Amino acid sequence: DAVAGMSLGGKGAAAPVRVLGDAPAPPEQWIAPPVVSLPPEGQANPRYMQCSTYAIPSSGSVAQKYALPISVIVHPLNDPRPDERGTVAPVPVVNFGACGVIRCRRCRTYINPFVSFLDAGRRWRCNVCGLLNEVHADYYCSLDANGRRRDNLDRPELNHGVVEFVAPQDYMVRPPQPPCFLFVIDVSSRSVQSGMLREICAAADAALDNLPGGERTQIGFVTFDGSLHYYNLKSSLSEPQMLAVADLDEPFLPLPSDLLVNLQESKHLARSLLAKLPSLFANSIVGDSAMAPALQSACAMMQHIGGKILLFQSVMPTLTGKSSATAALRAREDTKLLGTEKESVLLMPSTDWFKTLALEVCSKNQISVDIFSCCEHYADLANLVPLCRYTNGQLWHYPNFDAARDGDSFRADLGRALTRQIGFEAVIRIRASSGIRISAFHGNHYLRGADLLALPTVDCDKAFCCDLAHEEQSITSSHILIQCALLYTTSDGERRIRVSNLNVPVTNNLADLYTALDARATMNVLIKSSIEQAQLTKITDARSRLQTACVNALKTYRIMCATPLPEQAALLPLLTLAALKNAAVRDGADVRADERSAIMMQVGSMPIFMTTSFLMPSIFAIHRLLETDGGTEVDGAVVMPASGRLSAEALEAHGVYLVDNGLCLLMWIGKNVHHQLLLDLLNLPSADRLDGAKVNLPQLQTELSIRVNRILRRIRELRPTSLPLYTVRQGGAAEARFSALLVEDRTLTTMSYGEWWQTLARQLQ
Amino acid sequence: CIRLSSQPMKFTLIFRVPISPGQLPMPLAASMDDEKDVNGELEKFKGQAKKIMRQTSASSPTPCTIEAGAYSFHYIIGEAPSSPGVKICFLTLAEKSYPRRFAFNYLGELQKEFIQLHGQQIDSVERPYKFITFDTFIQKTKKIYMDTRANATHMKMMSDDLRDIQGIMTKNIQEVLGRGEKLETVTNRSSELSAGTKRFKDNAKALYRELLIRQWAPVAVVFLIVAILLYLFWR
Questions:
Q1: Of A99, A174, A228, A245, which to mutate for an interface test with B (greatest number of B Cβ within 10 Å)?
Q2: pLDDT, position B151
Q3: Per-residue pLDDT tens for A188-246?
């Protein structure tokens, strides 16, 4: 487009044409609602399913010009939280009964609100492949004058975007499995001294009454240091019995049963064991860890049922047996490599053993592994991460764990891991209308076959994303249906199929993709795919991928039209800059290898609202709270303050700022802060000992404390993490971590937001 | 990893028997697996159990044993006193060497407890494995019946319910499932036969044509020669 590219006068003579307009500030609303430009009837609620852009190009050539991913992000088990139960309706459940689950005969798409009924209601046309299907006699209903079924409103599958079907027997390979939890605990001396063992026992004991599964829940314990210890929890015993096995070469189970027991029947024994474990190993001086053999026998104990293994480690695994010889890890972190090209080597596993265990043993037997890593030094998490990634598990990282400091968060996280909503023996398949196919998944996933996601367990905190690619022929229909089907067993033993549908319009016009773009959803996909890149080749490749995507997207838009960038597209540069500065992929030597591996693993499963906060944290000026901030509205909802600019220039030296990045909370205390403020908020006369300290905000009777506590409670309600609160003083040693979150500022390796915006503007001329 | 011993009762299935011909059987509860099915052996028997489930009807003999190689299926069909006409089948797969009287006692105990807990709700079941929570009771009962020698006292207590094993019908798995297979071979054979007869018909037609040609060809040739000679003669 010639007009936009023209500069006034000769080369470099006049001021540059304002091709991009002004740089937009970060959004003020904490966790802003998704931007969906679709009519809502029949569409999945955005909390379950979103697209990176709500317009699909009609052909592959248009898609290629777009330069940004065209993807769908699903968060299937994102059921309403307790605080939402009044406002958000639960997913409707449909039991088809005798006629079975209604699916297209040819392409196996589930019935959805966008099919059309023809032939007086006797047939229905599939909107994915176009086939005319016969309506089962039990499902028949006549049509009204508009061609809709007269019982449309009574049938949730025909007017809700997300429905759950009760699965008949052919959707089950075996009877629904009971929830099963196996604790694999490192009891080396370090574990006892750091207090990890005590915290595990306290948290597990507190959660015992709330484990999902009711009377069917199965539970077991394995502890390990230099040898393996099993526990007989037979319900007729009065005390749990410990059986130690020193043979690590071919670990065998000393008892055929009673190691994994019914929780209800053996609860008194489980409680007794949890109470005794800390004292049992209190005087341990064993520093070894036979983690790999412990994992092998844990899998052997559970493989006939499947379920969740919770692995707790305090030291790097040192002992292996003959059958786990390749699992030996060594301290290979060289801090000189950080910030160089060779850093990526530290992010790649040095042995295949854990990945093989994950794929060959865990995934096949419906076992998923969660890891709580509490090592003092380097734990080589890059090797352990595949164990979680390929089994849809999760990793919690507490570097240099100390129970006095991290105990609260640890207990909260472990409690959540044990009691959150969870599904078992699950698979996901995503289908799209003809003309579009599912091409690649990003983030943590394991594909069985061409397009089936194998999920031994699936919980309410996991999201999945996949790219949509075009087939050879152009799309002729006006809309594309994207359908995600999750087949899983609930913790109550019911087999269900949760189906989410999005009906997205097709367009020839490239500009429509920019208008319908959702920057936060797009960034979620981009950060996950760039993390994949970092682990395949180099971290620098990851960064250049992010940068190129942003620049190319804006260039393409500028070539097409002279109108200002749509609001969402204008957010892209800020989000891209934030991603380049994020601990996951940023340049520099300040992020250790373990931390990077852990963050990459965590980001891989994050839903959109979490990646947005993680890249671009919210910052609240506590000293400038409005009258209404932190108060409650009529319906009881907490009024959240507006989020400010993420720049040191915006920080006032007399102020206190609270930053929320989804994983932790940081409170920055200016050097000139008034001592009354500190008294009202923290009950402390000065900020002397508050640099880099972990703090539990006291519940004081002051107006400020009440309001800030309410705000904190609200933040913690929405987050799936324990969100520890740290304080940082202006000018203190710990301020560096806080400054890293100020994404608008210049750093040693990246530009400031203003400079970046100018660079982009210049590149687009 | 090596496991030391195993349960004699491999798995148990409880299902509602279809009353009317169109109805499908509805599984209500099943046992949990005790160990990993390493060679896929158990999978085969579970498949057979599904087929038995489909073929069981209200008129099937009860109690009954179906022998299947190294294992035997045992089942009883009972009625829920509160829902007349609704029949429930309790099926278990046990090692062949396991004494039948214990297997049927085990099934009897399951029946008593199941009817007591869920007897009222059986006719309103609308989804498979609605009473999957019963698997904890199945698990406990299986353990009691695991070691026949050690639990001889328990068995003695059960002696009033001791089933008269003489009266239990024994069938062979081939017999039960074989009906379906034989039908298949018959249809195969009949389609083969009809294909064969068609071929025969075509062959016969071809032969007849050949015969006609053979019969009439010399005559036709002679006729042709005579015609040519006459033609030449008249010239």
A1: A174
A2: 58
A3: 999 999 999 999 999 999 999 999 999 999 999 999 999 999 999 999 999 999 999 99
Omega within 30 of 0 (cis) for the link into B128: no
Tens digit of pLDDT for each residue in A677-687? Answer: 999 999 988 88
Rounded to 5 degrees, φ, ψ at A186 are: -75, 120
Write A338-345 long-range contacts (CB < 8 A, 24+).
A338/A588, A338/A589, A338/A590, A338/A591, A338/A592, A338/A593, A339/A587, A339/A588, A339/A589, A341/A538, A341/A540, A343/A539, A343/A593, A344/A534, A344/A535, A344/A537, A344/A538, A344/A539
| Phi and psi angles of residue B231, each rounded to the nearest 5 degrees, phi first | -60, -45
**DSSP-derived secondary structure letter, A559:** H
B150 touches A: beta carbon within 8 Å? no
Of B4, B135, B139, which has the smallest distance from its Cβ to A256's Cβ? B4
Query: By the CB < 8 Å criterion, does B127 face chain A?
Result: yes
**Are the beta carbons of A172 and B128 separated by less than 8 Å?**
yes
Q: Structure tokens of B201?
A: 């018909």
pTM of the model: 0.89
Indicate whether this complex's ipTM tops 0.90: no
E strand residue ranges, A4-159: 49-51, 56-57, 71-74, 93-94, 116-118, 123-125, 132-134
**Helical segments of A686-752, H only:** 703-718, 735-739
Q: Is B32 on the interface with A (CB under 8 A)?
A: yes
CB pairs under 8 A between A and B: 74
Q: Which of B4, B34, B132 sits opposite A176 (nearest CB)?
A: B132
Q: What is the pLDDT of residues A368-381, one digit of tens each?
A: 999 999 999 999 99
Chain B residue with the nearest C-alpha to that of A257: B34
Instruction: Answer whether A237 touches B (CB < 8 Å).
Output: no
Sort out which chain B residues have CB atoms less than 8 A from A257's CB and list them.
34, 143
Residue A339: phi and psi, rounded to 5, are 85, -5
Per the structure block, which two tokens stand in for A731? 């000018």
| Beta carbons of A511 and A560 less than 8 angstroms apart | yes
Cβ separation B36–A215 shorter than 8 A: no
Rounded Cα distance, A43 and A57, in Å = 19
Q: Quick one: CA torsion of A623, A626, A627, A629, rounded to 10 degrees?
A: -90
User: Which of these, A693, A646, A645, A704, lies nearest to A669 by C-alpha position?
Assistant: A693
Assess whether pLDDT exceeds 60 at residue A14: no
- For residue A215, give the nearest of B5, B36, B136 by CB distance: B136
Contacts of A97 in chain B (CB under 8 A): 126
- In 3D space, the residue among A230, A389, A372 whose CA is nearest the CA of residue A302 turns out to be A230
Residue B125 has, within 13 A of its CA and on its CB side, a CA count of: 28
Q: How far is CA B231 from its chain centroid?
A: 82
CB within 8 Å of A664: residues ≥ 6 apart: A721, A723, A724, A725, A726
Query: Which residues in chain A have Cβ-Cβ distances shorter than 8 Å to B135?
Result: 175, 178, 216
Kindly report the backbone phi and psi dihedral angles of residue B129, in degrees, each rounded to the nearest multiple of 5, phi listed first.
55, 40
- A 641-660 near B (Cβ less than 8 A): none
User: Please, what sign has the CA dihedral across residues A434, A436, A439, A441?
Assistant: negative
- A675-682 and A703-718 helices cross at what angle (nearest 10)? 50
Rounded mean pLDDT of chain A?
92
Chain B residues with CB-CB distance to A305 below 8 A: 32-33
Of A252, A304, A495, which is closest to B34 when you measure between CB atoms? A304
Q: Which residue, A208, A185, A207, is CA-closest to A197? A: A185
Contact state of A168 with B139 under an 8 Å Cβ cutoff = no
Instruction: List, for residues A90-103, the tens digit of each pLDDT value.
Output: 999 999 988 899 99
Q: How far is CA A422 from CA A173, A712, B6, B29, in A?
A: 19, 26, 31, 22
Cα–Cα dist A32/A37, whole Å: 15
